[in-house]
Specification:
heterodimer; A: alpha+beta; five-stranded mixed β-sheet; 11% strand; globular; B: alpha/beta; Monooxygenase; two-stranded parallel sheet; 16% strand; AUX/IAA_dom (chain A); auxin signaling pathway (chain A)
Chain lengths: 253, 589
């Protein structure tokens, strides 16, 4: 690695590269230990065979080396064969699924190119209102801050948030969505939607409603006055500005 | 000869010896010594901590540890705190409760963090565990006051009910009245997260009255200042108290009543709450300030001059105080005062009062933190939000505080460079990891290149948790971290140009960690599939709320990726927007 560093650092530790053949999964060599983590890992290894899930899960572990240790594999093992007594247990310290080259990224598949393509959408997800989850302040703290009546908040603060985080004041664009018959409410980010179509699509997906069943649900919302209205009765702009929370109800008839 | 002696200890002796070993790590080491120690240890383990509820199944835990009395579970990834994990992702506790209800009739303590807890789960807890003592729901959601009522009504010996930072559905304030008159066992009650309608004050008063062992009480915002005195007089033995609202029109009799009530609490060491502070009422605290070791004013819009007054009017406050959380209204001047008074300070957290404002609204800069680092040599833990930073300041902080174990710096505008030189902040953070040899947790911000990760990989040998946002240039950055940080357990990354190469080249590293979160990075769907295919000990989950990842080319980056080690296999409760890359699970929903 050719990095010129301002501070005097010891030379970066050489990372020995070994060739790795994806076809012979188990033919890698182990290196010196990654510290004591190898020891703490066995907490999750169980001696006797595990339940069916693990048998399915590890069905192909017979093709890997002995290092797969705790995976129950395809046969039941007695306790004596349990991994912690296997001196030669090889923990895959540096399993490569890719050969690390010191070459700079190829131009063609430079991941940062892909990122740039998406970065504008990633960073400005909220239509310029700010990044999702940034700065990393917990939701309930945001609620608290915008209920502060005095102080420097007046230039940024809109009317105080009510008990949900649906108010625009918090600059968070999430509103609660409930579906009739489902106890747990969900939250949806309104800023990424610009039409009823898009919103409905997302909601259908969120609650696992298939296209066929779509017609049996109606989208309702509660406005700032506390009244429940049918979403499709109002224009999108009115809907967005006045809604407090959403509910999907089953339509009768 | 010696060998034979070792094996001739009766099990009871070993069991007794093991009962002194409390730490999980030590217990795990004990269980590895030999077959019989493994067996003895597993039968006498009483406390289990599961850092990721999907890493293991309830059945597996129960099978190995049949006599558990206390369990702690964590669910959602940390970034869920910042809305990066969509609702419905998972973390449901019900199945755990259901299985434990049958297997652990004597389970007495349940501590949950970032889990979805329904009323049904709470009702099941209430009726299944006769000796239930401790319920901590930290940052949980999904339940209402109905569930709390069930707990209150049924748990005859409840000692601790702590709902901190949880989201509770407000249905009725009368759940508190469900505590039977015979319940006198409460030691700790934290209801600070509840809304206005969720607490019946008279029920609360009666409860406090009949619980002589109550040591820790955190009220919610709805409790007004004038009521504090009533509560405190009923519980002068309190050690830890969270006020509700701390604002009212100044009235002499209310003030003197309050001051008197505080001074009657001779054991009070820790204060929090203080929503809506009226500074005129702060002097009511002066009598207890000398004893305070912990002060949380992070909701209080207390301006710097008022804070300075509070600190300086209590001559002995400086010696005992070691944790303080304040909004950045405290400003550099307040922090400088703090630094000169509170020499024992160990933990400082400064939260932003206006996180979304573009212009700084207060005079809080890197200088405040530098002052504290200079004045408080015992500083171990820092969480600091600010709007500018320099490498020089970070180097100074690093040199002043070599004992730092947690350092979380958030410069509010992403990719902000050193404001003096316009350089990236690589050297500054490099100094932090180099000087603070015991650093366990680090959160980065500002303009950062791959160099900072090289420093972290080289020096961060004890680093267990790293949070990265808007940093780095290429996969080399991620490679440095994964190949260099030997103790790394949790890595969370957002909006960084890290792609497939570093991840695939260090795949085995992931098996030694608890979890990896990457969102808005450049990891391709193909790489995720490969990881899922080749690493059976990992659960590789792709999160995408807009469309299935396989509806796009394999080289297309995934939106969010969560990888964690697990012996339980892929989970069953994935919502439609989470795709498991495990071969055994159908990728198409």
């Amino acid at each position: 690695m050719e990095l010129q560093l301002g501070l005097a650092l010891p030379p970066p530790p050489l990372i020995p590269i070994e060739t790795f053949d994806l076809n012979s999964y188990g033919n890698y060599e182990t290196r010196e230990a990654l510290g004591t983590n190898a020891l703490s890992w066995p907490l999750l290894k169980l001696g006797p065979a595990d339940n069916d899930i693990n048998n399915i899960h590890h069905h192909n572990s017979s093709s890997s080396s002995s290092s797969s240790g705790g995976g129950a594999g395809c046969k039941k093992r007695s306790f004596d064969e349990a991994p912690f007594f296997d001196e030669k247990r090889n923990v895959p310290k540096t399993l490569h699924l890719l050969l690390w080259t010191n070459q700079p990224n190829d131009e063609d598949d430079d991941p940062s190119n892909v990122l740039h393509e998406n970065s504008s959408s990633a960073i400005f997800k909220n239509d310029g209102e700010g990044l999702v989850g940034w700065p990393p302040v917990k939701t309930w703290r945001k609620k608290v801050h915008h209920q502060i009546p005095n102080g420097g908040a007046e230039n940024n603060c809109l009317p105080a948030v009510e008990n949900g985080i649906g108010g625009r004041a918090s600059k968070s664009t999430y509103v609660k969505v409930k579906m009739e018959g489902v106890p747990i409410a969900r939250k949806i980010d309104l800023s990424v939607h610009h039409s009823f179509e898009g919103l409905t699509n997302t909601l259908m997906r969120m609650f696992g409603i298939s296209d066929g069943n779509r017609k049996s649900f109606k989208l309702t919302y509660q406005d700032r006055e506390g009244d429940w209205l049918l979403a499709e009765d109002v224009p999108w702009r009115t809907f967005i500005r006045s809604l407090k929370c959403l509910k999907l109800i089953r339509s009768r008839g | 000869m010696q060998k034979e002696m070792a094996y001739s200890f009766p099990d009871e002796v070993l069991k007794h010896v093991f009962s002194f070993i409390q730490s999980d790590k030590d217990r795990n080491a004990v269980s590895l010594v030999c077959k019989s120690w493994y067996e003895i240890e597993r039968w006498c383990r009483r406390k289990v901590f599961i850092g990721n509820c999907y890493a293991v199944s309830p059945r597996m835990v129960i099978r190995r540890f049949p006599e558990v009395r206390s369990i702690e579970l964590k669910g959602k990834p940390h970034f869920a705190d910042f809305n990066l994990v969509p609702d419905g992702w998972g973390g449901y506790v019900l199945q755990w409760i259901a299985e434990m209800a049958g297997a652990y009739p004597w389970l007495g303590e349940i501590r949950l963090k970032r889990m979805v807890v329904t009323d049904e789960s709470l009702e099941l807890i209430a009726k299944s565990f006769k000796n239930f003592k401790v319920l901590v729901l930290f940052s949980c959601e999904g339940f209402s006051t109905d569930g709390l009522a069930a707990i209150a009504a049924s748990c005859k010996n409840l000692r601790e009910l702590d709902l901190r930072e949880s989201e509770v559905d407000d249905l009725s304030g009368h759940w508190l009245a469900q505590f039977p008159e015979t319940c006198t066992s409460l030691v700790s009650l934290n209801i600070s997260c509840l809304g206005s309608d969720e607490v019946s004050f008279s029920a609360l008063e009666r409860l406090v009255d009949r619980c002589p062992n109550l040591r820790s009480l955190q009220l919610n915002r709805a409790v007004t200042l004038d009521k504090i005195a009533n509560i405190l007089r009923r519980a002068p033995q309190l050690v830890d108290f969270g006020t509700g609202n701390y604002a009212a029109e100044l009235q002499p009799d209310v003030f003197s009543n309050l001051a008197g009530a505080f001074s009657s609490c001779k054991e009070l060491k820790s204060l929090s709450g203080f929503w809506d502070v009226v500074p005129a009422y702060l002097p009511a605290l002066y009598s207890i300030c000398p004893r305070l070791t912990s002060l949380n004013l992070s909701y209080a819009t207390i301006q710097s001059p008022d804070l300075i007054k509070l600190v300086s009017h209590c001559p002995r406050l400086q010696r005992l105080l070691f944790l303080i959380q304040v909004l950045d209204y405290v400003e550099d001047s307040g922090l400088e005062e703090l630094a000169s008074s509170c020499k024992d300070l160990q933990e400082l957290r400064v939260f932003p009062s206006d996180p979304f404002g573009v212009e700084p609204n207060v005079s809080l800069t890197e200088q405040g933190l530098v002052a504290v680092s200079l004045g408080c040599p015992k500083l171990q833990s820092v969480l600091y939000f600010c709007r500018r930073m320099s490498n020089a300041a970070l180097v100074t902080i690093a040199q002043n505080c070599p004992n730092l174990t947690r350092f979380r710096l958030c410069i509010i505008e992403p990719k902000t460079p050193d404001y003096l030189t316009l350089d990236p902040l690589d050297a500054g953070f490099g100094a932090i990891v180099e000087h603070c040899k015991d650093l366990r947790r680090l959160s980065l911000s500002g303009l950062l290149t791959d160099h900072v990760f090289e420093y972290i990989g080289t020096y961060g040998k004890k680093l267990e948790m790293l949070s990265v946002a808007f940093a780095g240039d290429s996969d080399l950055g991620l490679h440095h971290v994964l190949s260099g940080c030997e103790s790394l357990r949790k890595l969370e990354i957002r909006d960084c140009p890290f792609g497939d190469k570093a991840l695939l080249a260090n795949a085995a590293k992931l098996e030694t960690m608890r979890s990896l979160w990457m969102s808005s990075c450049a990891v391709s769907f193909g790489a995720c599939k490969l990881l899922g295919q080749k690493m059976p000990k990992l659960n590789v989950e792709v999160i995408d709320e807009t469309e299935p990842p396989d509806s796009r080319p394999e080289s297309y980056p995934v939106d969010k990726l969560y990888i964690y080690k697990s012996v339980a296999g892929p989970r069953f409760d994935m919502p439609p927007f989470v795709w498991s890359m495990d071969e055994a699970v159908k990728i198409l929903h």
